[in-house]
## 1
Amino acid sequence: MGELIPLFPLGTPLFPGIVLPLQIFEPRYRRLMHDLLSHPEADDRRFFGVVAIRQGWEVERVAPAEALYDVGCTARVQAVRPQADGRFRIVTVGGERFRLLDVVVADDPPYLQAEVEWLAEEEAAEEAAGDADGLLTPGAAGATPLCDDDTDDLVAAVARGSLDVLSRGVRDLFSRYVAEVSGLGSGGSAGDEEPTMDAETAVLLDAVSDDPTALSYLVASAAQLTTEDRQALLAESATRRRLTLEARLLRRELTLLQTLGAVPVPLQQFLTPMTVN
């Protein structure tokens, strides 16, 4: 049995450390806000789980566990502004990743709840496994025998160095990608020389320059990728592997931008609510 938490399905995943403002207007989610606000402001239970919708619009009309992706992220409430008409404007920040085990649909509370398992232990194990990917280990052909302490120090040093190189590569690719998108959005062409990145994105990149994990989540949330691509990045527990996947995706997107000369539009913009017709 996992922990039971409130659930808020959205059209796209939320990533740890990413700010998510929301306007709460549906009655069931107004009830969720009242339930969360019943906890003291410093209480760590002021959060809900965000999971991306895999199919459909009204999750309750199909089997919820099948309609939702299985890895999500908590949204921790940072600011709440009640509105005169009963709505809420809130600001949340992505917190911990979790895996969806089951979805609970009930009349009270009226919002979905999810039974989840937290992925902190998996993250630690996958980070270690990701750091070992591609590294030459003692006993392999051409490897020099080392004592255990020397081996640990060497592996750690090489892992840190290669992760820094990978982070710089993704940062450079993302800078080029943002500049291309900005140039096309402002009426330029993909062939314009030296497209520039907007100041806000530059500030965000500087803020995460020394944190590969934060960089990976910033890129995953900011790039105009499909929900499937973003979900694959969220589901990856190892920073190194997440960055490697982002490098491939950014190269693909840059090629499309420069070849087609068009800014991608999220698929959700073309979706309309399902009707009985």
## 2
Amino acid sequence: MSNSLQQLKQLVQAIHPITEAEWSEFVGIWHPFMAKRKTLLTVAGEQENYLYFVEEGVQRVYFLDQQGREATLVFTYAPSFGGVVDALMLQLPARYYYQTLTPSGFLRASLADLQLVMHQCPAIETMIRLGITQALSGVLERLVELQCYSSADKFRSLLQRSPHILQVVPHKYLANYIGVDPTNFSKLINSVRG
């Protein structure tokens, strides 16, 4: 089994254990996909057709308002699931963009294949539901940070969740995620580390 499939299996088993027979069904729906740096994988207003498993690279989900301002909502990197999952599962046009920040490698599964394997294997449907619930829990924690934390506290929290993030995500996107002007980001780094 390839390293990527092994990482996918470990992630699945950490969310909700499935049998080897269920794994055989699940692993069969994933296909390799590569994207260059700054590729829009999902565009707001369009349908999200895939669930991604990140093998390499860094991506972000972001919102673009009517004035053209970006709000970075989440970063994805190996080994994790990615995409605009609400649009995928609800079959609604995406409200967000999913963009590669670096050259990226994925395994991806189509919604049709995902729905079929979820229908055939209730444990896989349970795993998907639990994975989405864990993601929702993370979103709720993030809302608390946005509403209650200072910029320094948001940054500390981010570093606690993802200690390596400064090495993998360009600082201008981290500044956007935290909600500070990119020109002040180095001051924030120094104040938190100091």
## 3
Amino acid sequence: MSEDPWLVVGLGNPGPRYAGNRHNIGAMVVEAMAASAGATLREHKAGRAWAAEVRLGTLPGGLPGPRAVLARPMTYMNVSGGPVSGLAKFYKVPVEQVIVVHDELDIEPGQVRLKRGGGEGGHNGLRSISQSLGSRDYLRVRLGIGRPPGRQDPADYVLSDFPARDRTEVELLIGDAEDAVVHLAQRGLEATQQRFHVR
């Protein structure tokens, strides 16, 4: 296992107006992970982000899991790259150990999918991160929110809140995403894909 820390970034927009939006599911995951670890996300001096240093789970034998920095940019989604790059440089995190947690229109609601690299699929947050890191070879934990119904504009859809009737599903998705991040850092991409992609 690498001694380098992991950087786990949850994407979203700042402020109460956006807090419950579908586009903020990545930020919700990081906030839940911090709470589970008994940590508090605080403003970080290296960039425009809230961050906390934690351990990801527990290894066999009761040893603490790998070191990680949980973070969510304080910026709007489409300029997430600066904060991510700043934290990666500060903590000396190699791009291969950057994990970005984000919403994905082209995945069924409630599903978790993982990959390394590839395109951004029109996701402005990912595009900004790729540009700032100078690489697309970071890991993505992609959380399905599905396509908008009827002719609703995708931009309006992602910037709308999850309906109250979906609360249980959203909580389950956040829990699965937390598990996927920990599994990814402990056991690698292929093993984590095998576990979560069969669901």
## 4
Amino acid sequence: MESTLILQHNILYSRGYQKAQRSEHYFPDHALGIMLAGESSYYSNEGTFVMNEGTICLMRRNQLFKKLKKPSPTGEPPTLISVFLDQNALHQYATDNTILKQKAYKGQAMIDLTNNVFLKGFFDSLRPYVAHPEKLTAKLATLKTREAIEILLQTGDGLASFLFDFQELYKIDLETYMHHHYQYNIPLASFAKLTGRSLSTFKRDFNRIFDTTPEKWLQSKRLEQAHYLISTQTLRPSDVYLEVGFENLSHFSTAFKSKFGVKASDLWTNSDPGVSSGS
């Protein structure tokens, strides 16, 4: 069973299932994490980033990822400690240390910092709190967060612009963005933020561009992609529904039958020569 232990508001310990599990993530804040066991693969428009046991990664805020978590070869569930560097903490650090306004960050969204021995030592110092979370007070968590920022700034990899680029998302081309990201199952409020809009402006702009509501367009677009994957790529419905952005197979199956007049399972059977021939 998956469990998440909130050591403090921005420091989390999570232990997943002893089986592969797919999910989607939107990170509104920077995240610094270490993989303690198992494996997590992150898929984005930038490519694939794999975290194995011992991998330390810094993830850029305002990113969308599809994630596949798997146990280790010995069956240990995927386990991770994450420290989220929220904007308030970073603003305070910048003010206290007279850090000037940084240029817009243009680098990678996920940075591998596995070889940083100081970050490894930092995460080692957090491990005892998993068994004794009451010992990690809010004051200590603030100190640990500032320690993480200090270590990151000492890496010499130009992370100042990564951490202290406080520019808000600007209004981007909504049509292009939605065609590239419709398969991510996130709230409309998150889509709005990622495209530089308030929720009301997002809905208004969406209706003007697509002549329908976001909810109706997203479902239709996801079903069309599912139909293509099942009929042309002969993928099973159970392998498709999460990939295109549905939360559960039952809802997907009902919506598919309603839109196309045929069950997704029947379409797959008729599309796969091996299945239809009984082999």
